[in-house]
Model the fold of this input.
Amino acid sequence: MSAAREEIHILEDDPLVAATVARTLEEYGFATRWFRTAGELLAAAARQAPALVVVDLGLPDRDGMDVVRELRQTADCGVLILTGRDVLSDRVLGLELGADDYVVKPFEPRELVARIRSILRRRSQPVAGKARRLARFEAWRYDPASLVLGAAGGAEEILGAAEARLLLCFLEHPNRVLSREQLAGNSDLSPLDRSIDVRVSRLRKRLNDDTQSPRLIKTVYGAGYVLTAGVQWEIA
Done:
């Protein structure tokens, strides 16, 4: 008996685009379901979450950003935005709301598959044995299991999935230069893809790190980024 294929939901009101995405993913071994409206997609995801949802932003019944926000609150699945909106503010907002990646149309089918595989690979990494570890660095503490970032004064906030994975990568490799590809978990990352740079900028703001002259997460030009802090792990 063959193993069950990972299911990808496609939220796209254009049937031609949806058919192209579905055909590409099915050629690479995924199962797909197409939804034309946000309401249909969210209802299906609430019944049984897929492995990942490909979300268009221009929908007939709701804005795609609202869908990303609701998926992050209600479904345990990856989220990739696939849209014609090539605007930095939309990219920042999408990643801030918890999307795992942001791809602009027109897209290269093989790149789309590579990005989806990268998301699924990161999400499938085992967390057993480290789920209840706490990381302490500078005046901060971070709980990877709950995605809670705590400040010295007691204030806490829950990070979005993308920021949480980025912070965990830094914490597991402190004082080591990490390339954008390593931070994205995607060896095929396009040189023009700025999604990691956007996430680093957002993470710096979370950590009160001066974005103009950062002290905690430094840029190593031509190489990547480095967390310049000692990290202590303890059992919660």
